[in-house]
Write a structure and sequence with these properties.
The complex is a heterodimer of chains A (223) and B (307). Chain A contains six helices and ten strands. Chain A is globular, with a radius of gyration of 17 Å. In chain A, the strands form two sheets. Chain A has a six-stranded mixed beta sheet, with helices on both faces. In chain A, strands 2-1-4-5 form a four-stranded antiparallel beta sheet, with helices on one face. Chain A starts with a strand and ends with a strand. In chain A, helix 6 links the parallel strand 7 and strand 8. Chain A has 223 residues and is of the alpha/beta class. With 307 residues, chain B is α+β, with helices and mostly antiparallel strands. Chain B is built from twelve helices and four strands. In chain B, helix 1 crosses helix 10. Chain B starts with a helix and ends in a 6-residue tail after the last helix. The chains are: A alpha/beta (223), B alpha+beta (307). Bound molecules: adenosine-5'-triphosphate (ATP) and magnesium ion (MG). Adenosine-5'-triphosphate binds next to strand 2 and helix 1 of chain A.
């Protein structure tokens, strides 16, 4: 069932400048519609794996195949273009503080293009509603709490209904109650058939979900 | 259709941005306008040099002094000899009779005092004069004409400044080279100013650019607003420069007009014709787009935003 594997890592090694091996000879697959957790301590290589999937980093050796496209064999422009089909919740949020919540969330639609203002309004409202932030649509990002900022990032990542949703430590700075709420949100998106990869350094929170957990340590599988 | 919509959006964005920070952008526009004005002055200088050349400033004048005893027949003979030389050598000639010269002299208040005894004398001592506007700066030809006319009876003297032509020609050549060099220099400066403008914008918006890039923004998505931003400022600056050139040439022409007996009437600045101005704008616009393109690429290659 080759066509069911939406993400394939084949003997992937990623070395950063300065001879840092972040990922060492990793192979794994993720199936279409799967929800996978990526667990590991700080520096284990979680973000690196997610960046390789998004194509913002390129494997030093081995191949990363997304939807049957080998990211190492296409141009940088095409890798950028493929990202339009991926939703990314960044570890450091990457909220734009020069604009309000609405303008933050609409960004992927502007990049993809071809939407009318009316469609954009509708989609932004829906996305914010799905994360419970519709009442903050006109707020400035600095007026949001940490959990609300995290939800803003999720709204921005899902607004264009990507096939793959990547979330880099979306629960990191949240208390347990809020972290669970966020994970609940991802479960909702998962029900609509999106392939989701979530990284976390705190494994305890993940165990209840009964989903696959890829455990990493120093760039390699563990346990 | 999408492309047009994108451009309309970038157009609106850049204008509202420029208008939302008018002071900051006024400075940009003034600097750009100044540079474009200087380029425009260079261009009009080149244009005008051609006109001045055509207006006979380059070719020397020959002044033929008749003997005071010369009669109409002598003058006719001289005139005939001049006309025989042909249009390639003689562009035009002008006869100034001694009476005319005296009348003009007596009208000049300053001259009146100096020449009081001349004027008071009943016998007009001034000679008849023929001024020849030549149409060549070839000294051998002019010398030959000089000889021919000098040999005519009742021609006292023929004066021609041989070096004049060469001097003016060199001056004009030098001036046009200088204005060309200045234009090249200032186009380079224009490029640097635009580059710096874009670099600053990209630094101000580096977060937005980086995030857009991570979400999948193409080069053109990032470049388009910057191109509009630079293009419309350059366009305002070009219009301002045209207004400036209009003002400068008008005031200079007024100045020249009041000194017309010094410079002659050939000295007049014509403004860049509107087609040439439109061409200048178009070239600057293309140059701007190209510069923005290079600037964005440069910033991409030297920052994180390249992904
Ligand atoms: N751009 C980079 N240049 C050099 N080294 C890097 C770079 N990014 C990451 N690394 C190194 O690669 C290793 C893996 O980093 P990575 O960000 O993937 O870890 P992580 O599992 O996401 O950690 P955390 O839980 O702290 O986010 C680390 O040792 C890190 O220092
Ligand atoms: Mg990380």
């Amino acid at each position: 069932m080759l066509e069911n594997k939406i993400i394939k890592f084949q003997q992937v090694t990623k070395k950063y400048t300065g001879d840092i091996t972040a990922i060492n000879n990793l192979s794994f697959d993720i199936e279409k519609g799967e929800l996978v957790f990526l667990a590991g301590h700080s520096g284990a290589g979680k973000s690196t794996i997610l960046k390789l999937i998004a194509g913002t980093e390129v494997a030093s050796s081995g191949s990363v195949v997304i939807n049957n496209i080998d990211l190492g064999k296409i141009s940088q422009n095409n890798r950028t273009f493929i990202r339009q089909h991926i939703g990314f919740v960044f570890q450091d949020h990457k909220i734009l503080f020069d604009r309000n919540v609405f303008d933050n969330v609409r960004l992927p639609l502007d990049i993809i293009g071809g939407f009318t203002e009316k469609e954009i309004h509708e989609k932004v409202s829906n996305a914010l509603e799905s994360v419970g932030l519709e009442h903050k649509i006109k707020s400035r990002p600095e007026q949001l709490s940490g959990g609300e900022q995290q939800r803003l990032c999720i709204a921005r990542a899902v607004i264009h209904k990507p096939k793959i949703l990547i979330a880099d430590e979306p629960t990191a700075n949240l208390d347990r109650a809020n972290a669970l709420k966020i994970l609940e949100l991802f479960k909702q998106f998962h029900k609509s058939g999106v392939t989701i990869i979530i990284s976390a350094h705190d494994e305890s929170i993940l165990n209840d979900y009964g989903k696959r957990i890829i455990r990493l340590s120093k760039g390699q599988f563990r346990g | 259709m999408d492309k047009i919509n994108n451009h309309i959006k970038s157009f609106k964005q850049s204008w509202s941005y420029i208008l939302s920070q008018p002071i900051e952008h006024l400075i940009n526009i003034l600097v750009l306008g100044l540079i474009i004005t200087i380029c425009g002055i260079g261009l009009s200088l080149n244009n005008n040099m051609d006109t001045w050349k055509a207006n006979n400033i380059v070719y020397p004048q020959m002044i033929v002094y008749m003997n005071t005893q010369a009669n109409q027949a002598d003058i006719d003979a001289t005139q005939k000899a001049i006309n025989k030389a042909g249009a390639k050598i003689v562009k035009s000639s002008q006869f100034i009779s001694k009476d005319q010269a005296l009348a003009e002299l007596s009208q000049d208040k300053n001259m009146k005092e100096i020449s009081s005894d001349v004027i008071s004398s009943s016998d007009n001592p001034l000679p008849d004069v023929i001024i020849i506007n030549t149409s060549t700066s070839e000294s051998s030809i002019l010398n030959k004409l000089d000889m021919q006319i000098s040999q005519i009876a009742m021609v006292d003297d023929v004066q021609v400044d041989m070096n004049y032509a060469g001097k003016v020609d060199n001056l004009i050549l030098f001036a046009s080279r200088l204005s060309f060099a200045i234009q090249i220099l200032f186009i380079a400066v224009l490029g640097l100013v635009i580059y710096n403008m874009i670099r600053l914008q990209m630094m101000l918006k580096s977060d937005a650019i980086q995030v857009s890039r991570l979400i999948g923004a193409s080069d053109s998505f990032i470049m388009r607003p910057l191109i509009h931003y630079a293009l419309w400022q350059v366009t305002i600056a070009t219009l301002a420069a045209y207004a400036g050139l209009f003002f400068i040439s008008n005031s200079l022409n007024n100045l020249f007009a009041s000194f017309s007996n010094l410079f002659g009437n050939g000295f007049k600045i014509t403004l860049l014709p509107i087609e040439q101005f439109a061409m200048m704008w178009a070239s600057i616009a293309i140059f701007t787009i190209f510069t923005v393109f290079l600037a964005v690429r440069w910033v991409f290659n030297n920052t994180q935003a390249k992904q």
